[in-house]
Amino acid sequence: MIGPAPDLLDRRLLFFTGKGGVGKSTVAAATALLASRIGKRVLLIEVDAKGDVPAQFEQQPVGFKPREIHPGVLAMAMDTEASLQEYLRLNLRVPVLGRVGPLARALDFVANAAPGVKEILTIGKICWEVREAIEGRSDIDLVVVDAAATGHIVAQLGAPEGIRDLVDVGPVRTQTQWLSELLADPAITAVNVVTTPEEMPVAETIDLVARLRAEVN
User: How do residues 93-141 score in pLDDT, each as one tens digit?
Assistant: First the structure.
């Protein structure tokens, strides 16, 4: 039996989503700031790479490599191609040196055309950072994600289960297994839906919560 969930800032992975314009980036940044003020080292991940997160700290946009934007707060922007390159290098021991010839076209195809792969590259990178921290290979205490808006977050969170449904055996299934377990653990992960007291955002929030409970483990 799973016991009671810990307080929000005692978890290791917090997603913030919501209808566009309700302030999810602001709330994600504020949560990271609060966590840093109680002594936690935070990695703040911007999924859509618009620069909204570093702007909350009066900083320039960040890249795929984390950069400190406030004492105790590092920020990075997701990049599916860079995530795929990192996966190939770390898991398959394949050297990847920039966007060169046929490899660049293959990266573009895999990241943009294969069903579910773009989402798994995003969620996989996020969960990788959390697992590295949990297993002591990183000094990050908390990963805060300025996640996709309500229309896309279910697909991202459900990507590991979707890939596992397609692949019965092999390394891909093994790697998506730990992703699913990490996302499903309420002691580690929480999804926070930001809204405003207006009809449309509230209706979308109610619908999203129902979908998350029905479609995502």
Answer: 555 555 545 555 655 555 555 556 778 888 989 999 999 999 999 999 9
Report the DSSP beta bridge partners of residue 44: 75, 144
pLDDT digits 0-9 by tens, 28-80: 999 999 999 999 999 999 998 787 888 889 999 999 999 999 999 999 998 87
C-alpha gyration radius of the chain: 17
| SS (HEC) of the chain | CCCCCCCHHHCCEEEEECCCCCCHHHHHHHHHHHHHHCCCCEEEEECCCCCHHHHHCCCCCCCCCCEEEECCEEEEECCHHHHHHHHHHHHCCCCCCCCCHHHHHHHHHHHHHCCCHHHHHHHHHHHHHHHHHHCCCCCCCEEEEECCCHHHHHHHHHHHHHHHHHCCCCHHHHHHHHHHHHHHCCCCEEEEECCCCCHHHHHHHHHHHHHHHHHCC
Q: Distance from first CA to last CA of the chain, Å, rounded? A: 15
| C-alpha–C-alpha distance, residues 20 and 170, integer Å | 38
Please count the other Cβ atoms lying within 10 Å of the Cβ belonging to residue 24.
24
What's the predicted TM-score (pTM) here?
A: 0.85
